[in-house]
Amino acid sequence: MSSRKYRIYPFLYDDELGKRIVKIEKVYLDDSELETTPITQSFLDRTINLEGQITEASLRLRHLTAYKENRAIKASLPYNSSDSRLAIHIREILSTDGVNCGSYQGESLTYNGSTNSI
To answer: Where are the domains of the chain?
Structure first.
């Protein structure tokens, strides 16, 4: 049974309600041990050194699905929608070699039992 290799990046994530939380980005490596998800300088600016328990990144986080070499790759977007660095980060991802296009997914919030996407 083979297992895929990956790197873990703990990062600061600003949610749409103004709360800053620590999440992780699990980036898988290809056979040459190169990262399959574009890791940009804007993302690295939000990474932190942290040991111990960290909550996994969830499907509810803002992300960009980038299409690279006929594969869909999810890249977390740590900046909230009112932060101008969000657009910069998205442009960095889309300008990565091999990325053909991308699809933005806003954050899903649960409030009073209802789920809304932003």
So the answer is: 6-117
